[in-house]
Amino acid sequence: MIKTQDYFRELVMMLFIRKWIILYITLAFVIGALIVAFAWPPVYEASGSVLVMRKQPLSQPTSVDNVPTELTDLKEDDVSTEMLLITARVVAGMTADWLVDNVEKYKGTAKVQKKALADRIASNLTARLEPRSKLIKVRLAWDNAEDADLILTTYLDRYLQHRSNLYNPAEALDFFRNQFQVYNDELRKREDLLINLAQQDFSSNPNAQISSNLMVQQNLVEQLSHLRERRNGLAQQVHFLREAVRQGNLEYFSTLDIVQLGRLAEKLLTLTIQRQELLTIYTPTSSPVEGVERQIKDTRATLEGEVNTYIGSREAELRGLDESIVSLIKELSEIERRNVALNQNTVKTNRIRREIGLLEDSYSTFAKRLEEARINEETRSDTMFSVSISDPPTAPQAPVFPKRPNVILIGSILGFVAACMIGFIIEFFDHSFKRPEDVENYAGLRLIFSIRHF
Predict the structure, then answer these.
(1) According to the model, what pLDDT value does residue 426 have?
(2) For residues 358 and 29, is the Cβ–Cβ distance under 8 A?
(3) Helix residue spans in 201-286 (DSSP H)
C-alpha cells in the first residue's frame, strides 16, 4: 500500500538521483554560453534620431494669391511614410555607393559586392517611432563601432538627400528666379534714371498729396486724442485697483463688472458673515469656526490671485496703449517729414514711368510665380512637414551582443532549468525501484535487506 508521500522530499531525492544528468546538462549549457560569450563575433550598434516637425506658415503668406497657408497637424500616416522613406532600399543603395566612392576601406568593391553591402545595410537597419513623440529612432547593427557610426551618419545624410530630391525639384524654381532677377535689374536701372532726373531738373506739384497727408494727419490726431483719453482712464483704474489690493479691501472687487471676481468677493463676504454667526455659538478654536476660517483663507488667496491676474491684464493693455501712442506720434512725425520732402523730391517723367509700369507687370508676374514655386516646394500637401537630425549617430564602444555577464548568467539559468526538467521527465517514466522504501510503498512488502548495484 502506498503511504502518504512528502513531495518536497521526493523532489529533492529526484534531483539527487539524477544529479549527474543535471550536472552534465547544466555544464553543457554553461560551456555553450561561454563559447557564445567569448567566441561569438561582437555586434555593435549606432543610433540616431530624426525629428519630424510640422512646418510653420511663411511670414507674409498674403504676398501670393490663392496660396494656402493653413497647415494641419502631423498625422500618423505622415510619420509612417517618413519611416518608410528612412528604411527605403534606395537609401541603402545610395549609402553603399557613397562608401565605395569615398571610404578607402570600401573602394574597389565590385558591383555584386556593392549590392551585398547595400542589402546588409538595409537588413541591419531599423527605425522605430518613440512613444508619445515625433522622434524616429534609427539604429544600425554592425561588426565594428567606428564603421557603424560612419555608415549610419552617411545613411542619414543620403536619406535627407533622397527626400530633398523627391520633394524639391529645382528646375522650375531656377527658371522663375532667373526671370525675376532679370526684371528686377531692369527696374533698378529705370529707378536710377528717375533719381538722376529728379536731381537734375524737376518740377514739383505736391498739393494733392499734401492734402491727402493732412487728412490722414487729422485722423491720426483724433486717434491719438482718443487713445490718450483711454490711457488716462485705464491708468486711473489700475491705480484704484492697486490701492484696493494694497489696503486689503478685496470686497471692493464685488462692485466691479467682473463675474469671477464678483463671485469670489461675494463668497468671501458670505463666509465672513458665516464666521461671525458661528462665533456667537462656538469658540474661535472650535472645528466649525476653524473650517470656515480655512475656507476664508483659501477664498481670499484665490481672489487675490484673480485680482492680480486681472490687474496684470489691465497693465498689459495700458502698455499696449502706450506703445500705440508712441507709434502714432512717430507716424505723425513721419507724415510731417514726408510733407516737407514732397516739396523737394516729386518726379514727373511719364515716359520712364510707363516703362516702369510695363516692367513692374512682368516683375510682379514672375515674383508671384517664384513665390508660388517656393511655397509649393515648402508647403504642398505631401511636404507639409520637415525633418531634421535631432540626435547625431553615435556608436558606443561596448557591443550590444554578446554581453558576457548576461549571456553566461542566462545560459547557466537556462541550463539548470532544462537539466531539472529533463531529469524530472526521465524520473517520471522510470518505474524501477531505486530506494529501499520504494519496495514498501509500491509492493507492500517488508524489506529484509538490499544489495548495492555494481
Answers:
(1) 78
(2) no
(3) 207-246, 259-279
